[in-house]
Amino acid sequence: MEYIHLQNNAMQQTFEVEVRGPLAEQQPAHIEEYLKKYGTFIGEKKRVLIDYSFFLKGEGIAERTRDIRLRATNGVPEIIVKLGAWGGMDSKEELSVLTTKGRFDTLVKIFATLGYTRGMLCVRNSRVYTYRATEFAIVEVPDHSYYYETEKIVPTILDVPRTHEEIRQLCKEMGLSIFSNEDYFAYVEKLNKDVNVIFDFAHYTDGYFHTTFGI
To answer: Could you read off the pLDDT of 92-116 as tens digits, one per residue?
Structure first.
């Protein structure tokens, strides 16, 4: 899948160009060996997230125009909202607020009070590198599959087409295929069926995420 979203910060707006694709059985090890040799290791990301977007009325997977999530990366909770069409080549505005460790359960209760009571609970583990000025993540869906994500930040929308093509060429040189919209949506649906779990606040017990995931 290929898409672009707009990031907002206090100083300026920047654009993030991102491309995703599948990794077959042996590819994660081969790609990581290549990145270790030619790139720079940034670190690992252990992530737990609740994606509420699947249960927004009239939206779902392919039709969504809002991406509303709670997530914790390496134990740090975050509210993250992306505005804009999902999939293909789009412009998205990303809004993010970090909180302190140990507050994920509080965020879950706040969201439930605001009416966000159901979402897809997902676990993702990533090993992140930089390679040719591009961030490259090998993402593990535990006990299921792998995919990759590449992303690059550019200062203006005029830089997007060129950067998009640079990333596509980079993936081609590395022998990687890129998700089409249809293939990516099908993959997400398979993850929802096979490994992701429906979170329903009606069955939530206080402190669940701290006890289960340490967040």
So the answer is: 567 889 999 999 999 999 999 999 9
* Model pTM score: 0.87
Whether 19 contacts 150, CB under 8 Å: yes
pLDDT at residue 89 is higher than 60: no
CB neighbours of 155 closer than 8 A, spacing ≥ 6? Answer: 12, 14, 15
* Half-sphere exposure (Cβ direction) of 42: Cα atoms closer than 13 Å: 13
- Tell me the domains of the chain and their CATH numbers: 2-213 (2.40.320.10)
Residue 156 burial by Cβ neighbours in a 10 Å radius (0-12, 13-18, 19+): exposed
Asked whether the beta carbons of 64 and 83 are under 8 A apart, the reply is no
* Structure-token pair, residue 174: 């590395």
What does 180-200 look like in DSSP terms, one character per residue? Answer: -HHHHHHHHHHHHHHT-EEEE
Amino acid (1-letter code) at residue 76: V
| Tokens found for residue 203 | 């069955």
